[in-house]
Amino acid sequence: MNVMLMENMNSSADSTSPASMALYTVMYPVFNQKDDTSSAAQTLKAAFIKAEKHSPGLTQQILLKIMQKENIQVNYHECLLRMASEEFEALMIDRKEPEFQSLNKKAHALKRVLSTIPDEILDKVRFLQTIKDIAGAIKELLDTVNAIFKMPQYQNKRAMEQKKEFVKCSKNFSDTLKVYFKDGKYDMAFLLRHFFY
Amino acid sequence: MDDDVKKVKKPGLVSPFKRVFLKGEKGRDKKAQEKATERRALHTFSLSQPDHRIDPDILLNDYIEKEVKYLGQLTSVPGYLNPSSRTEVLQLIDNARRSHQLAGQLTSEQDAVVSLSAYNIKLVWRDGEDIILRVPIHDIAAVSYIRDDSLHLVVLKTAQESGGSPCPSSCPDLNKSQTLSSLSESGGVLVEVCCLLVLAVDNKAAAEELCLLLSQVFQIVYTESTIDFLDRAIFDGATTPIRHLSLCSDDSSSKVDIKEAFEADINTFPFQDSVEAEGNSPLASTPTSPQTKPASEGELSTTAAELLQDYMTTLRTKLSSQEIQQFATLLREYRNGASIHEFCINLRQLYGDSRKFLLLGLRAFIPEKDSQHFENFLETIGVKDGRGIITDSFGRYRRTASSASDSTTNGNGAAGGSEDSAASDEGQETSEGDEWDRMITDISNDIEALGCSMDQEAVTP
């Protein structure tokens, strides 16, 4: 959701495809850790951003190939979900108005609770509580978005379309949960596919 | 001569005392045997081992019966009773048995049948089938199995009804008519109370089976309830308000939001066009996308519009043209003041047994003030996913004026507090009510038009 709204306000996160989460969740922290202001590092960062924009999912493919090559046995989507709970400047709205700061907080709260899914999913009782927490976080986020949309200056057709998309993804997430509970199949990728915003 | 008489046993004569006693014993055995053969077979299913798994559909759409002995129900038990504590529970039970509040000796007189489904536990006497009690699933807090020597007890901790219970309290310190909100006699401390339903089964396997069945019921009920809660949260947040709504504060205002969202686009709903779209069952979890985009830039509730469209499409596939017109009439009558009860009964009659699931699709369009009655009605007619039994445990997710809403603008777009917006919103309430009426009128007209168009299609070659 943050990525969607930010398109008009912050040019850093230009790619909004779910597959681009690898860039923000994995690569951005790497770029920030390096704290390398050399032109090579900056060029690499810019190259990744540009490449991802033109070919969404490229970063993910690179990461998966690296993991395959190095024989890293981890669940990629699970890792991505856990890492998504971190705060990324690129995904935050840098406007100071209280409503946008509130939006940042609500979006982060949702991502935080989603990141607990891998730990809770195997305990039915705790997972049900997590789902309730997710429901609450979605509701608060949408309430905040609606509050922003009430202001005429922020009524933006594209943002509203993106909100619709988020609602649709939320619904798909709910449907996936129903399938999961019915079949008892634990497919993290399937679950997360609908929540990569 | 007397001795001879005494010694000789005349054939055909039986001592009157023997006749009475033997007849009594034989009679009792005979009665017991007759009882056993007279008793109906239980409605039961084979369960997969070792976890006694049962098909969830049986619990949702059917039921399963198990034989138990009903020892009694203890009321006004302190709510803080730990159902996992064998000592605590047995102490209560022992006290109750001593004071004859629970059956002491187990005989066939305590024979009962427990009927289990996703909706409730029902206890009836084995002979005569008179109902003992019924406990909704959401009133069950815990189930315990306690083995006390040869006795296999299954104890259910349940909520206490405020009207009291058939058994007197087991706790002398508490008032017999103690309810959840009443104070105890010893000091002014609020004490929550509960009931303990005490059953006995034949053996450990039977006890474990009963406990596992209840566990599965809990899983089904609370899983569905949780997903339902998630869906509601998404639906409530999905609507995009056009202007500040003072009506939001107390009501679950998703309905108000839906009416606002419909306001701009009700006439653009392609009720006729939707015939061409693939039909969707009202139970489908994924709503279809709107077939046409709204002409205006007005905010349209995605979920609400899709729900309405889904429902109209379904009506067309499930009802005849005459029935659609009848539906429109009932809807208009409801809008004009007919009671929700009447509306439900008439709809139920219209849909019949085979199509009663269509009532589920109406859920989103029932105003909040009538929604509880509607949910209860769904439950009574056995429509699956009747929400009344399971939402109570978690409570409805009610839309309250969030901090974000409190600081939002009034209709003129100027930032202000609630005081500023109250005056300007007063005038809006009447117009919003009119708009709601207009929207429902439009819906009714469109439904009638749907019916008429079907008639025309039937006539036209």
UniProtKB/TrEMBL annotation, chain A:
Topology term for the membrane: Peripheral membrane protein
GO CC annotations on file: FAR/SIN/STRIPAK complex; Golgi membrane; plasma membrane
Gene Ontology terms for molecular function: protein kinase binding
Annotated ranges, domain Programmed cell death protein 10 dimerisation: 18-72
Keywords (A to Z) from UniProt: Angiogenesis, Apoptosis, Cell membrane, Cytoplasm, Golgi apparatus, Membrane
Localization per Swiss-Prot or TrEMBL: Cell membrane; Cytoplasm; Golgi apparatus membrane
InterPro entries per UniProt: PDC10_dimerisation_sf, PDCD10, PDCD10_N
UniProt keyword annotation of Cytoplasm present: yes
Pfam hit, one: PDCD10_N
Primary subcellular site in the record, as a coarse category: membrane
Superkingdom, natural source: Eukaryota
Presence of the UniProt keyword Ligase in the record: no
One example of a Gene Ontology biological process annotation: angiogenesis
PANTHER family, per the entry: PROGRAMMED CELL DEATH PROTEIN 10, TF-1 CELL APOPTOSIS RELATED PROTEIN-15
Recorded family membership: Belongs to the PDCD10 family.
Protein name: Programmed cell death protein 10 dimerisation domain-containing protein
